[in-house]
Amino acid sequence: MRRIHLAAGDRILSTFENSDIGREPGTTYVDLRHSLPYADRSIDVALISHALALLQDRELVIREVYRVLKPGGWFRIDDNPKRFFFEAPDPDFDRCVHRFEVMRWLWMAGFQIVTTMDPSLTLIPEAPLVVRQILEAKTWHESMTIEARK
Question: Which stretch of DSSP H or E encloses residue 3?
């Protein structure tokens, strides 16, 4: 199973191919302002954590993830709920985006939204074990999560 962790920064996941624009140890260079350097339908699971709202072209990243995922592949987005606001943006956070806007971009790319949730909830049973392990590890606190399936 091939898994990619985009914009990993220093959060290295041992079972993923970790990538980042920086030169963090354990990552390969991937610039999310351009097409992803993976073949069409070559990835099983893609994860982006605490970075999507900070990117310039969020829609491009979502379209590219859809392109590289295999049919039935999973895409998980984790971020601070204050960046993915529901009612009004938090004035203390720059680069906020409405949750429904993210879901709209996912739908437009062709994804099926599987769940939007708080990390304290249980994932749906059919989610791949690796996705459940990420959640159970509680690596990220106070996350807002969207999972989508190709």
Answer: strand 3-6
| Residues 22/31, Cβ–Cβ less than 8 Å | no
Annotate 100-149 with DSSP letters as a single string.
Answer: HHHHHHHHHHTPEEEEEE-TTSPPPTTS-HHHHHHHHHT-SSS-EEEEEE
Please report the sign of the dihedral spanned by the C-alpha atoms of residue 105, residue 120, residue 142, residue 49. negative
> Which SS3 state, helix, strand or coil, does residue 146 take?
strand
This prediction's pTM: 0.78
Beta-strand relationship, 3-6 and 43-49: parallel
Residue 82 CB partners (closer than 8 Å, separation 6+): 90, 92, 93, 96
pLDDT per residue over 26-46, tens digit each?
899 999 999 999 999 999 999
Looking at domain 3-149, its CATH architecture is: 3-Layer(aba) Sandwich (3.40)
Instruction: For 21, list phi and psi in degrees, rounded to 5.
Output: -75, -25
**Distance, CA of 2 to CA of 107 (rounded, Å):** 23
Q: Cα 114 vs. chain centroid, distance in angstroms?
A: 13
